[in-house]
Amino acid sequence: MIFKSVTIHNLFSYYGEVCFDLARPQGEAGNIVVIMERNGYGKTSFLNSVKLLFGGVTKELMAGMQRGSPGTQKSFVLGTQERWGILNHKARASGEARCGVSAVLLDETDQETRITRSWDLRSDD
């Protein structure tokens, strides 16, 4: 499968809904995408969002993002006094509580499959 697009909503460093168009140009056969930018512009947030989409909150993801003890899945998602959690800090400050990531994938016949993982953090469940 090939990524056609990835949409991130209020996750990590992404505020609001940000859609990345990864579709190959019309008539092209290639499927290589290069993600580059200066430090602090969301490359790691992009990759961690994709990891969340496919794997959920894994121990490896938590360990890679938290120093010391990775804590629980719940504290990773909701945050703690030391850490914001997965919800973008501007979204949290403006009272928003929903975040998520989705992707549109293409198979070898160009059939689309959409996958989504989202959270509603209005409660602590």
From TrEMBL:
Protein name stated in the entry: Uncharacterized protein
InterPro entries: P-loop_NTPase (IPR027417)
Organism for this UniProt entry: Candidatus Methylospira mobilis
